[in-house]
Amino acid sequence: MDLITRFQELVAQMPEILQPLIVALAGAVPFIEGEGAAAIGIVGGLHPAVAITAGAIGNFLCVFVLVTTSSRARSALVSRRRRAAASRREAAVGVPAGEAAAPATTAPVDEADEVDEVDERGRKSARREKFQNALVRYGVPGVSLLGPLLLPTQFTATMLAGSGVSTARVLFWQGLAIAGWSTLIGVIVGGAAHAVA
Known about the structure:
Layout: H1 2-13, H2 19-27, H3 33-43, H4 48-93, H5 111-121, H6 126-146, H7 153-162, H8 167-196
């Protein structure tokens, strides 16, 4: 809570032109996010529409960076595993790596197969397993829209990207969730602030 108080004080102390920037920075912080940043901005004296917009933008930009980074890292890891699997197959057949393509009867390495291998080895953590169960049960829309009730959007979005969901799909649903939650909380806090004033 100390961090939230500091952001509120900072918003109140800054010139009016810089206040939305502070709210956007608060939106990039996990556990504050867009909705918390919108509340901070409204309490700090910003118009609710400006506070909601700034908080949501700050939260979304942070999620965008995390999702694109996670997606690229996952792609690099999957490519490396595929190359290693191809090398192992070629070594088992006695053909030097790189001289011949894998036999036509060999099925390509599927990302789902790799996840199954991880499952069989027992390397999956309990949290990851719970997340995967929620993803199967509710899908990307459900996990994105309901995720902020349990975890910051930054964590949820990173886990979605890491599990192989397309970047565009993750960003769409996370953006929708950020806008929705920021607007909902901003309207509630703005209404309360208006009623008190």
